[in-house]
Amino acid sequence: MTTGHTTKNLIRDAARSLFAEHGYNGVSMREIAQDVGKHPGGIYNHFPNKQAILVDVMQENLSRSHEAVIAPLNDDLDPSHRLEQFVRSHVRYNIANSDDIFIAYMELRSLEPDGAAHILKERKDYESALRSILRDGQNAGVFKISDPAIHARSVLSMLAGVTVWFRQSGPQTPTDVVECYVQAALQSVGATYSTPPER
Amino acid sequence: MTTGHTTKNLIRDAARSLFAEHGYNGVSMREIAQDVGKHPGGIYNHFPNKQAILVDVMQENLSRSHEAVIAPLNDDLDPSHRLEQFVRSHVRYNIANSDDIFIAYMELRSLEPDGAAHILKERKDYESALRSILRDGQNAGVFKISDPAIHARSVLSMLAGVTVWFRQSGPQTPTDVVECYVQAALQSVGATYSTPPER
DNA sequence: GTCTATAGAGCGATAGAC
DNA sequence: GTCTATCGCTCTATAGAC
Fold it and tell me: Distance (Å, rounded) from C-alpha B134 to C-alpha B131?
């Protein structure tokens, strides 16, 4: 996913994959080094310590997901279509970057306080973008929700779940899965969902 | 949560709490021992190794949640009310046992193959109980879902998310939160949700 | 920038006295 | 069943040659 084959990027890519599979505490610097074909000490020429690799992986994901999901949101759309736009690009991003999403959810607790503060703030921004869509829809009377904050979190955890089970090699195509989650997410806040045009 | 204050139960309780906070790989036998006021070697009088503690914690959760959520399901009810019954008891259980739910989702990858096989089977049974409710509702024409299997997983991950943020000390009461998730879950499969009687 | 070598600490697990 | 003591191993991180 990272562009450029510098050693630093190779280390980040290897760490992302290993962290997603075994967890931050389940991966050693030796394993990361071996994955990029280098010797253990060499990693410290590119990152000051193990924690910095985790922070780097998480921050890269946050900026990429912001660019892919939050930035394109069109404020001129009505709440239902804005929500649909959000959910569709969010699920697409989750499927295409499942390792990152898995890490974002699982390894918050592995962050030391300094890194955690910045990353938690970016996560809050992401959550509040969805929450404001839900609030608009509630005020406009097109959503049926009793608490926008809780419904925002419930939608996000629902959509994060796709990374746990979806595999490109499985029976469903990404497009099928995206459409299914769009339906579930829109319906969960009481928005009307209409089947997309036949493909 | 475990009844009886035998040393074995105290070890299991301490491990559950520590595993939920720092992850299986982030907790040492020494920390568990210190939490129960014993010395490290003493744990091995009650469990053969660290992995056995994790398996024990997970299995206890599976049997308790089965008893609390799956066993009471009333097959005579129509799909909508059966789903509502499932979701309500499931969310209640998740809130009251958030450490267990967190561990069940996060530490599957920390299980060695032997323990994983049995626990994955019980999880599949749990998921298929929900899936069969969804299929019944789909066949009866009362749910709007394009794939019962995906919607079942999406409901379960939505409901598991409550453990990430809900705290008893927060602004919402458990009853409020349960009701909100019941609404979101029922609406997500296109079932009609009517506000519960005023309390 | 990459290597070898290793320091220093913490890990799971065991042995044996009581 | 609990203690003390310790083995053998792996970990993160550093030092210094090339």
Answer: 5
Q: Which residues touch strand D (CB under 7 A)?
A: A 27-31, 40-41, 44, 48-51; B 7, 38-42, 45-46
Tell whether the model's pLDDT for residue B84 goes beyond 60. yes
CATH class of A51-188: mainly alpha
pTM, two decimals, is 0.95
Contact A157 B150 (CB under 8 A): no
Q: Which two tokens stand for residue A33?
A: 């080094």
Domain parsing of chain B, residue ranges? 50-188
What is the model's pLDDT at position B100?
98
Provide the CATH topology of domain B50-188.
Answer: Tetracycline Repressor; domain 2 (1.10.357)
C-alpha span between B101 and B115 (Å, rounded)? 17
pLDDT band of B83, cuts 50, 70, 90: very high
For residue A194, the model assigns a pLDDT of 84
Q: Which residues contact A57 (CB under 8 A, 6 or more apart)?
A: A12, A15, A16, A19, A100, A103
Q: Does A128 touch chain B (CB under 8 A)?
A: no
